[in-house]
Design goal:
The protein is mostly helical and about 160 residues long. It has one domain (about 5-155). Helices cover about 80% and strands about 0% of the residues. The protein is built from seven helices and no strands. The protein has helices spanning about 5-20, 30-60, 65-75, 80-90, 95-105, 105-125, 130-155. Helix 1 (about 5-20) runs antiparallel to helix 2, helix 2 (about 30-60) crosses helix 6 (about 105-125) and helix 6 (about 105-125) crosses helix 7 (about 130-155). The longest helix has about 35 residues, at about 30-60. It is elongated and about 55 Å long. The mean pLDDT is about 95.
């Protein structure tokens, strides 16, 4: 399975989860709980999708020992803020970092960084105020970012 196939599989599961989201007439607390849950899933999708894409490239273009090393290093890559994405891509190719820095600006950068920060607050039991609509917007941005990374690393 290549990176794009893995990303597609992850996205299908996330889309199926979103289809099961509570209706807008559902109790507000239930909606808020689902928004938190979906936020964690979307953040995980961003992380796992980028890992799958980068790992696929390393497996196709490198000696098995190098691909194994990359895989082990990616075990520690979490909480994909924009800066961490820039660093990861730049560790492979400086042109990738530069392209990512040009793409991940303004609303995209704010969405990615806000999503990861929100995920961390939720995971650590902090009180957060977010809506399912906001997390859905983050998800749309994340899909665009993952598509950009896929096109960037898999030319």
């Amino acid at each position: 399975m290549n990176g794009r196939q893995g990303v597609s599989r992850l996205q299908l599961r996330l889309d199926a989860t979103l289809k099961r989201s509570p209706h807008s007439t559902t109790d507000i607390e239930v909606q808020a709980d689902f928004a938190k849950y979906f936020c964690i899933l979307v953040s995980g999708f961003l992380e796992n999708a980028i890992i799958a894409l980068v790992l696929d490239v390393s497996q196709r273009r490198s000696a098995p020992e190098v691909a194994f090393f990359v895989e082990r290093q990616l075990d520690y890559w979490t909480n994909p803020t924009c800066e961490k994405i820039f660093q990861l891509l730049g560790n492979f190719k400086q042109d990738w970092r530069i392209a990512a820095e040009k793409y991940l600006v303004d609303e995209r950068k704010a969405a990615v960084n806000s999503l990861v920060a929100l995920r961390n607050k939720i995971a650590h039991g902090e009180s957060v105020g977010t809506s399912l609509a906001q997390v859905k917007d983050y998800y749309k941005t994340v899909i665009d970012v993952v598509s950009f990374v896929a096109d960037l690393v898999d030319t």
